[in-house]
Predict the structure.
Amino acid sequence: MDRIQKQNHLDISESGTYAYLSICSICLSELFPGEWNQEFNKKYIKEMCKHLNAPEKVESVMLVLIDGKSGHVVEPYIELLLQEPNLHKKSILIVQDAVLFAVQSGIASGEYDARQRVLARRLAELLNVPFDLIELYEHSLVELLSKDVNDSTEEEDNAAKRRDKIRKIKRYTSIGIATVAGGTLIGLTGGLAAPFIGVGVGTLLGGASAAVLTSTAGVAIIGSIFGVAGAGLAGYKMNKRVGKVEEFSFEPLSRFCETDHQLHVAIAVTGWLKSQDANNIIKPWRCLAVSREQYALRYETKYLVELGQALEYILSMAVSFATQEALKYTILSGIMSAIAWPAALLSIASVIDNPWSVCCRRSSEVGKHLAHVLLSRQHGKRPVTLIGYSLGARVIFYCLRELADVGHAEGIIQDAIMLGAPVTDKSSQWEKCSRVVAGKMINGYCNADWLLRFLYRTLSMSTGVAGLAAIKCPRVTNVDLSGLISGHTEYSDKLVEIMDYVGVRIRSTDVLDDEGVLKKSTSDYTEMRNSSRNNVVNSKLRVSKSDECLNLHP
């Protein structure tokens, strides 16, 4: 163990080590407050002190800092840390060390806790390291740890290396994260340029990382993180009916999900469906680029299609009855009682009330079942990001609530993004859910969503609706979508714009075919990137940052 720690040790002074630990301690107190996180915070900082061979007296100081009452801020410690000679233009090494520590040892060997990844993301922000590079580092860890160790001839080794290089380039390009031009890896999300292709995994990870993780212990660690004993999310099938849930499975958003495992998983949950077409579960989420391993939850499609048909009918009838202006007036005037709704609309309410109530009940049950699937670690011991709209957001809300009710579920969910959620806006319920979310918890709402208000009208006198207004909860980030959409049915149609607006990473669906394979050439990507309204600025910024935090140039 001592040998491994020395190999893993950053080559920084005692003052640099103190600064690094102080930054982590202060960030822990800010990111994970509350009694339910105290044990994690203390255990993390104790293990980190051992990892960095810090004296006991330093550990005592760090335990004071994680209480959050010292009044210390991170800026002076960041300045001190960056003065380290061996970190000059290599600040990425700090974040890499945090990731490696989480994967290799951390608070539980073989478990990548969501809070550890959120902390790594925060360190990247503070040190001006593009998180794209950290995800590439995570991917390289997976590449290294997933290699089988077998006896082979030199010719077989050379052939395997050629296949591996081709496969790696194809993988980077086909998953839409990056493309290759002139031997340089270029991130589509912002023009990030760094010469990773050709430098080798050992160079990217660092000699110490490669030496430690190619050991038998490293293979065991990755097996635990990925849950190799099970079939994973792609292979999960509900064996029998669970309560009211009749259908529940995971659909990979690309063909690489089953073979290209990552250290972070994303699960997308749709709302109503327009038809029984199998692709309707996947199609809305093809633009999603939160992780390289992403799934769409398939659940109760029969009932979601019935709801979709009822929505179409009631919308067409609303137009034919010329009630739109009356609805707008009703909402703007703030009248909440059912009496205010036009009689013509109320007369056809029975068409949608039953499908809506059925889907609401079933989506809450699906959310609870999803919670237990995650608790059983079907996905392995990795952080999960959840994102959904309409009833999909309701699934996520009830999943979080079930995780909180069961207890000891902290560290599973990294981020939770809920758009147009037909759930209560009670702050006490949202505060309970926020306990099991390590990172961002987003409530996207539209106060002009008259259809959601109408669907939820029976409860409008006693409680508000999260999809219509901001939530009063410190951990929740509220995003007003009224400037993007005007009604509930537009969530699926404008999902790309909405996700971009709330800060969820996306990619252009034009670059991939139905199987997630690249369709355009490198020049097409360059033209597309240059024409993007956001990426022109981001390109200059990220290239500058990559030069600052990397020292891989010849």
